[in-house]
Amino acid sequence: MHKRLRTLALLTVLISLLAGCGGAKEEPKVAEAAAPAAAQTCPECPKVDTAAVIKEGMKSAAANYFNPLPSDSNNIKAPEVQKLIDAKTDFLGVDIRSNADYAKGHLSGFINIPFAEVGKNLDKFPADKLIIVQCYTGQTASQVVGILRMQGYNAKNLHFGFQGVTENKLPTVQ
Fold it and tell me: pTM surpassing 0.70?
């Protein structure tokens, strides 16, 4: 929650800096018999290195993400996932493999959101429960998990992805 507020605050400051300069100049009103008024000028806008502000915000978000992590916090092993499925634990399982591979077999209860469509489907990710992301080997799912965790989600990568599912002989459905 604090990470989201920090990110929102950073974006608000950035937008304020970018939008606050160069406001519209209002033409001075001239009285009929009076001499024309001197033209108004805006004070010079401060120079803002937008790229540096964004880079610093990303560095801060990454530090906040990585610094408190224990070594295994982003991963969950296939047998542990099977225990969660068997116990009917309330979590969201997301299989980011292709639609065709998902159709050939997937873990019970996992939904299919192919990797290229994850960004368009963030509204489907609940903020209040565990999210387990699975791909082919765990590498691509780790990228998704990193992004989700930076946004404050409780997300884990299925260690070794679907390869871990098959190696551990977990039951799949079609």
Answer: no
| 3-state SS, residue 75 | strand
| Spatial CA neighbour of 113 closest among 99, 123, 127, 126 | 99
Q: Where is pLDDT greater, at 74 or 91? A: 91
Spatial separation of the C-alpha atoms in residues 62 and 68, rounded to whole Å: 11
Strands 110-112 and 92-95: parallel
Helix 50-66 vs helix 139-150: angle between axes, to the nearest 10 degrees?
110
75-167: CATH superfamily: Rhodanese-like domain (3.40.250.10)
Residue 148 near residue 155 (C-beta atoms within 8 A): yes
pLDDT per position as a tens digit, 3-28:
555 555 555 555 554 445 444 445 55
> Cα separation of 147 and 151, whole Å?
6
